[in-house]
Amino acid sequence: MTSRKNKRQRRCPGCKETGAIRVIDSRPLDDGRKIYRRLNCKTCGHNYGSVELPIAELERLQMIEAQRASLRRVARILAAELEELMPVGATVVASTG
Ligand SMILES: [Zn+2]
After folding, report:
1. How far apart are CA 11 and CA 62, in angstroms?
2. What's the rounded Cα separation, in Å, for the pair 87 and 72?
3. What sign does the dihedral 80-49-91-17 (CA atoms) show?
4. Distance of CA 66 to CAs 23, 50, 61, 62, 73, Å?
5. 3-state secondary structure of 83
6. 60 Cα: distance to centroid of ligand 1 (angstroms)
7. What is the Å distance from ligand 1's center to 48 Cα?
8. Got the DSSP string for 41-75?
9. CA-based nearest residue to 42, from 17, 59, 67
10. Cα of 36 to ligand 1 centre, how many Å?
11. From CA 57, how far away is CA 41, in angstroms rounded?
12. Radius of gyration (Cα) for the chain, nearest Å?
């Protein structure tokens, strides 16, 4: 089996570059159904947050909202939940990663 280093890379909402990021904090939300992360871009130093959730949980949220909302609304709901956890001025990004 080939050993492969697990490099964390994603697009930074600050500088828009796809580069290395550092996970500052990672914690479960909603009894572990979601994982919240605070991230730091190694390129520009921008701090931002993400939430990771299983597809089944995303689909459940979509079903709840399907009558009157789009996936964008679900993402806004998640972002609003996270806003209280974030430091002032930080960007919140919803992700199914
Ligand atoms: Zn950046």
Report:
1. 25
2. 23
3. negative
4. 33, 23, 8, 5, 10
5. helix
6. 32
7. 9
8. ETTT--EEEEEE--HHHHHHHHHHHTTT--HHHHH
9. 17
10. 19
11. 28
12. 15
Residue range 18-45, pLDDT digits in tens: 989 999 999 998 888 889 999 999 999 9
| CA–CA separation, 30 and 53 (whole Å) | 10
Residue carrying the six token digits 């931002």: 48
Distance 25 CA to ligand 1 centre (A): 17
C-beta neighbour count of 65 within 10 angstroms: 15
- Cβ atoms of residues 47 and 13 within 8 Å: no
Nearest to 39 by CA among 25, 27, 28, 54: 25
Strand partners, 22: 40
Q: What is the pLDDT of residues 49-67, one digit of tens each?
A: 999 999 988 888 778 777 6
